[in-house]
């Protein structure tokens, strides 16, 4: 098995909702995911590892190391039992992306997730004052609920690349309801404003009280972290001991 | 399993024929496939999903989303029970192409398909007045039947890339009869004339009455749709949040 | 299963020898393989198909089609029961190469093959009058036998790429004896002289009478055939309906 | 199964330690690994082959051939029963790297390995007089032990690419303790001084007497060997019989 989820703690949710925030357009997903887990002091319950992630490990300041991974946190909100998935990267190939998505869905079913809510950015290439939240949903019912919160359906065009799209769309086939929330953004920089809008929406939707003041600082922190990850991952694409002709077989 | 066919409705055909029309040379396959399903009001009976398709989903105008897929429609013609397979894309790698073909054959056997008829274009690089229909067939019997309809055998040279060739050729190994019909075309543009010839051939061969007048409009529509799909699929090959050195791990 | 060998006729050999002649340096392997099967009128007993071959089919002059494949022929020589493997291509990736080799070994064991003899070229970059036959063998015993026929051991340096090396080396792990015969050659053109030397060696070694006169003509024929195959295979690496930005998802 | 470990001799270790020395930054891992096995006259007990290694075989001076591989040697030190893994290459893809690592861990568990110690280089881009040994460890206990030997924890930053990182990090998930020792080095050349430091550390740690005088000569030898391997492996990325357009299907 090339992707596995290792449970730290077995959870059993009632009508659980999985929220995912992974790297993507404007870093909105990742900023939202990290902010939620940190501010809500959500509890880590599982870790996802995949052979489709880069073949390298990160060194920690304390002299330890860790695999590249995605992590799943639990937070019992008033409105629903939430799992929040965050992580360093998404899988490196189409086959890997689908496999990781299937594995997340398998785990989700096991622990009682019923709805899947992914967070991403919607790149307009423009800088706008008002940043709307666009979305697509798998079921009418869910669409109607989010419309009441001002979420805009039917205006985002084109396609969603990666887990933010695959998870709800594959999830529909496997019996889940799903929605992908997309913060309107330029696309060329980390958008803390758009991320804040989505955090607020999620808080309102689930009846969570969350302080939004630290979001700007946290977004900068997320950006810095991701830049480092990015630089490191480039190393697995270059041979450390390069031959004159640039053969890359020595990892 | 990395490719799956999900049945909406179980069909049981008697001497069924599977016709495939997927994107390819001159878009002839796709135009023919879409025209047949739409004009004949064929009924959708199954959907094929594959981990070898791009890892992205399309957003719909109604605020919903859908995976990249191939779809299978059913139309009971006078001459034979037809299934028509159409779709957004073909698999992205050799291994994926073979796997998808095997899965289609497995499904075909299960529902009673006996013959496989794929539709593609044969690129000559020239603009000709008369557009012939070339073909290759797996069995003499089938070749003889189609010759009577003016189809030209033994003149097309070289190879057929993708599902249009793999499906009948692999199908032969699995006990099916097969033919690949190729509309003569320039290769550099969408060829509605060549597509119309093949629709007419299929209609005549199976005793179907079909109005050919809307084909030009539909071909333009197919072209537009494909251009959009094309643009979107390029996105899964570029990182949305690009690093200065262009690392593409963030999907 | 991504590679399969379909038997046309079940053979049961006693101390059988498998000879392989596939495309490679100086086309020597392929010329030798094809010449042996044609001149000896060897009987086709099995066909190997693989998902690791290009995803395309060849059209025949008679209006039929065939998958890309390797073929196995049987010829009962005086000295030993021979199987000869020839084909269009080798697998397209490392994983594919190993898989195809393992499948050939599995089949070989089943039908009673004990020794594996692959044929290739050894490129010197020089044009030499006298073209030696170099070789490496898995067992001392085999090495000694071939030395008596003038085959040179211990002078060829470096590595052997593809099935010509993998098959005997992997074969050793699976209980076979093996040798790779390499005709000395320039490397930049099809070398009929070097191929003839190897055909003669094989004939002498197994006590086969074979007319060598037609070899030059046949070598030219092999070259022509391979050039065509080459041109066709390039097509599976280019999209037939290319987008302006060159996306290649339409096969 | 695409990666396999073939045992030459079954070992059963008590609190065994696996040391790996494979090609990487400054060639430090490989020099250390080869020096240890040769100077300690360690006994070869197993060989690892993988479909994720290049599809080629090396020719030997004696006219034999061998697959690309990793080898495992056994040396019963005073302080612990050691296995030393050395080899030509690391796997060619992320999926391959993870698979090979998992296979090594599976074997390790079977034979009684408890701790995993990988050796690599830490590239600073600078030439320094004093070459420290940096490390990251999976458990506090191990970190503390190595600190006493002057090993520096918490200063190396970034990530470790390949087996040197994957093996201890994945190993932690599978119940092993692990450490990655990294010799400080420039990164642009083979660093025998840094390698010697690590050999000395390992000798001291396990109470092994080992002569360090030959290390310079052996490092040069390792470098020469690797350059050859490098040159050869490039061949599997180029077609031996190249078409004008550079198609690479003929391996």
List the helices and strands and how they pair.
4 copies of one chain form a homotetramer.
Chain A: E1 3-7, E2 16-21, H1 28-39, E3 43-50, E4 56-59, E5 65-67, E6 70-76, E7 81-87, H2 94-111, E8 113-123, E9 133-137, H3 140-147, E10 152-153, E11 159-161, H4 163-173, E12 177-185, H5 192-206, H6 215-235
Parallel strand pairs in A: 2-7, 2-8, 8-12, 9-10
Antiparallel strand pairs in A: 1-3, 3-6, 4-5, 6-7, 9-12
Rg estimate of chain A, integer Å:
18 Å
Strand content of chain A: 25-35%
Strand order of the largest sheet of chain A: 1-3-6-7-2-8-12-9-10
Q: What oligomeric state do the depicted chains represent?
A: homotetramer
Distance N terminus to C terminus of chain A? Answer: 23 Å
> Which spans of chain A have pLDDT < 50 for at least 5 consecutive residues?
239-251
Name the pair of protein chains with the most residues at their interface, and give those residue counts. Answer: A-B, 47 and 36 residues
Total count of strands of chain A: 12
> What is the element string of chain A, with H for helices and E for strands?
EEHEEEEEHEEHEEHEHH
Helix content of chain A: 25-40%
Largest sheet of chain A, in brief, is: 9 strands, mixed
Structural class of chain A: alpha/beta
* C-alpha geometry of chain A: globular
Mean pLDDT of chain A comes to 91
Total DSSP helices of chain A: 6
């Amino acid at each position: 098995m090339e992707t596995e989820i290792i449970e730290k703690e077995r959870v059993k949710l009632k009508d659980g909702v999985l929220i995912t925030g992974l790297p993507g357009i404007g870093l909105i997903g990742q900023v939202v995911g990290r902010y939620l887990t940190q501010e809500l002091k959500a509890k880590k319950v599982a870790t996802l590892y995949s052979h489709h992630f880069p073949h390298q490990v990160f060194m920690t300041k304390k002299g330890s190391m860790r695999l590249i991974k995605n992590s799943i946190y639990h937070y019992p909100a008033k409105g629903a039992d939430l799992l929040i998935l965050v992580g360093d990267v998404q899988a490196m190939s189409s086959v890997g992306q689908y496999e990781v998505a299937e594995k997340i869905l398998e785990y989700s079913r096991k622990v009682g997730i019923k709805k899947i809510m992914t967070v991403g950015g919607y790149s307009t290439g423009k800088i706008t004052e008002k940043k709307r939240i666009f979305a697509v949903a798998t079921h009418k019912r869910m669409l109607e609920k989010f419309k009441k919160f001002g979420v805009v359906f039917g205006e985002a065009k084109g396609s969603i690349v990666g887990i933010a799209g695959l998870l709800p769309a594959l999830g529909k086939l496997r019996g889940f309801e799903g929605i992908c929330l997309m913060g309107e953004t330029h696309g060329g920089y980390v958008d803390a404003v758009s991320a804040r809008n989505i955090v607020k929406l999620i808080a309102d939707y689930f009846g969570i009280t969350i302080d939004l003041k630290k979001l700007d600082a946290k977004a900068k922190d997320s950006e810095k972290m991701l830049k480092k990850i990015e630089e490191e991952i480039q190393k697995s694409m270059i041979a450390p001991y390069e031959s004159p002709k640039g053969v890359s077989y020595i990892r």
